[in-house]
Design goal:
heterodimer, A: globular, B: 112 residues, mainly beta, six-stranded mixed sheet, globular
């Protein structure tokens, strides 16, 4: 299994509070991704990173920011959590970008009350 | 807006029967198609990466075909077993930005 961990695995928070999710990899892969998964939807890309300090927006980036100060860590921040951000968040990594297989972390279940 | 459709949404199959389901994607600007298997309470795991029209890939009892000209891929499972119960996801990659566009998945339930 690819060495990807996510923390926390579960979190309950209140509307309006900031939340940071962490993705950590031990594979030294260049590309890292944050997805959210909701019933009836496929995985939707929030943000991705193609290197240290290099990030870009995905399909559903509003309300989220990311940072990557080290190859191994990719942080997702909800600046002011809303109930619509209740979801399961998956981090993924890949060695390349052009059609490369993505390897997923175990997911973080976030509930915003 | 690129759209990837998977059908059916869910499927109940008797153990031992064979089954198949579909992923439809844009037929233009194709770069690659991925299939992933996602078991409940686990993370998606890659099954196949397909790039050429007419490609056929196989992994044990699971196989997939690709038609890029008409924009579809089939996933086949031969002799379904309870451990095949999972959601099967496909993801399309176009040659404009190389991001994966995911289908919503087909949930397969194998009845013993």
């Amino acid at each position: 299994d690819a060495g990807i961990t996510q923390s926390p695995r579960h979190k309950v928070t209140e509307t309006g509070t900031p939340v940071t999710l962490r993705c950590h990899q031990t594979e030294n892969h260049r590309y890292m991704y944050w997805y959210r998964q909701d019933p009836g939807h496929g995985l939707r890309l929030i943000h991705y990173s193609y290197g240290v300090k290099d990030t870009d927006k995905g399909e559903v980036s509003d309300g989220y920011s990311v940072s990557r100060s080290k190859t191994e860590d990719f942080l997702l921040t909800l600046e002011s959590a809303t109930s619509s951000q209740t979801s399961v968040y998956f981090c993924a990594i890949s060695a390349g970008t052009k059609g490369a297989t993505q390897y997923f972390g175990p997911g973080t279940r976030l509930l915003v009350l | 807006i690129l759209n990837v459709e998977q059908s059916p949404q869910s499927l109940h199959v008797q153990e031992g029967d064979s089954t198949n389901f579909t992923c439809s994607f844009p037929s233009s600007n194709f770069y690659a198609l991925h299939w992933y298997r996602w078991e409940t309470a686990k993370s998606p795991e890659a099954l196949f990466v397909m790039t050429l029209n007419g490609d056929e890939k196989k992994k044990g009892r699971i196989s997939a075909t690709l038609n890029t000209k008409e924009g579809y891929s089939y996933l086949y499972i031969k002799g379904s077993q309870p451990e095949d119960s999972a959601t099967y996801l496909c993801a399309f990659i176009g040659d404009s930005n190389y991001q994966l566009i995911w289908g919503a998945g087909t949930k397969l339930i194998i009845k013993p």
